Amino acid sequence: METEISRTTRVGKIKYTNAWPVFHYFHPEQLQYSVEMVTEVPALLNRRMLEGGLEVSAMSSFAYAQGSDHFMLLPDLSVSADGPVKSILLFSREPLEKAVNGTIALTNTSATSVNLLKILVEKYLQGKPEYFTCEPDLTEMMQHADAGLLIGDHAIKASWENEGYYVTDLGQLWKNWTGFSMTFAVWAVRREAAASAPEAISEIVQAFQSSKERSRSNLTPLINQAVREIGGSEHYWHGYFSNLCYDFGMRQQQGLELYFNYAHELGLLEHEIKLQIWSDNTLTRVKE
Ligand SMILES: C=C(O[C@@H]1C=C(C(=O)O)C=C[C@H]1O)C(=O)O
Questions:
Q1: Would you say the ipTM is above 0.95?
Q2: Which family does it belong to (predicted)?
């Protein structure tokens, strides 16, 4: 008979620096339960989570909402920003007010940010652009569009190489308009995995939490790795990691609920979303 201990939990990891603090000290080989890692851009992790090809993943908060009947949120984990995010950037040839009536190229790696842009354009800026989706290559995008949306390390690198484009930070724009924080990524578990393998999920959640805390207490190893692998300066990465928030408290939840409400109003989400957070019942069960 297959026991829970021998079953493998497939865990998705976002292939961008923004999620590193939660994964940096997450070492599957040190866990009691078996874990297989899949590292991909958010759009691919979203698809695999929706199709049941992963049990646990960091994913776009928008995709969590699309599949919320199948998912629960893991507690106190997110990639959020209360103001500028520095890596969700709209590059445009003309100032923003003009760009939002032109053609906008959208990265095919995102779900949250492309819908955030649509909300901001439609409700805040009253623009009427044409959109198309493509690979995250700014040079290529700008051959066919007036503006291009990039996320993650693609946005960071493009901001370093920027040759005169206007740059709009969507975290900052959301904050200017709503006064709220914005949550771009969440960590979720599929409901059937939460029901059938609670001990494994509990161990995974604790490992994510302790990675987050260890990263927060000393950013230097992450900064050094980012300089080595992506480029840029220690100063840049210190600013980048310390600016992002990895918690999912009341403030982040309120901002995300507001985003889901707007997405629903615009028909981007089919139904209203109630955040459902997984809680660890294994500790009480042991005592019974
Ligand atoms: C902060 C970021 O958030 C990311 C944006 C996502 C999206 O737009 O769907 C998904 C996951 C996050 O890692 C970033 O890409 O820089």
A1: yes
A2: Belongs to the MqnA/MqnD family. MqnA subfamily.
